[in-house]
Amino acid sequence: MEKIFGKPLITHDEIVHRIRELGIQITADYAQKNLILIGVLKGAYAFVADLSRAIGLPAGIDFIMTSTNAHGEKTISTPTMDLRSADVLVIEDIIDSGVTARVILEQLTKLGAESVKICALLDKPAGRKLDITADYIGFSVPNRFVIGYGLDYKNKYRTLPYIAVLDERAGS
Prior knowledge:
Layout: H1 12-29, E1 35-41, H2 45-54, E2 60-68, E3 74-76, E4 87-95, H3 99-110, E5 115-123, E6 136-140, E7 146-147, E8 164-165
Parallel strand pairs: 1-2, 1-4, 4-5, 5-6
Antiparallel strand pairs: 2-3, 7-8
Helix pairs in contact: 1-2
C-alpha cells in the first residue's frame, strides 16, 4: 500500500495529554449536572471512547449519525436517549465548515436538552462557512485534509493512533 501521509501532525502522546486536560475541565464544568455525551459517528468514535474515560462523572453516552439528503441538506439521526432536562455535550471529530455542527445544535436543542455544547477534537477555522465555535477544542489544525484517530479518507486510516495530513496526491 502506498503511504499517503507523512509524519504526524499531532502525535498520539499529544492527543492523550490533551484529552486528559479536556476531561478534567469537563468534569469540573458539569459537576452536579445530568451530563449526556453524544458522539457523532463515525469519525468521533475513538475520541468519544477516550474522552468519556477521562471525564470523572457518571455520564450517559449515545451516538448520532449525520447525512446529506438529495437536496444537499444535512440531517441527523435521532438519539436513543431522552435528552429532556439533560446537559448534552456533543463530541465531534472536527469542526470544519460549521454546517454540520449548526444542524446538530439546532436539532438537539429541539429535543428539550437543558443545554447543548460541543467538544471537538479538531478545529479547522480556515474552513469555516458559518460563525460557530466549539465550547471545548482539542487542537486547531490548518486547512488541510487530515486523517487518523477516527478521521478517514475513503473509510480508511481511522485506526491511525495520531493525526496526519493526507498527501494531496492521494485524492487524484
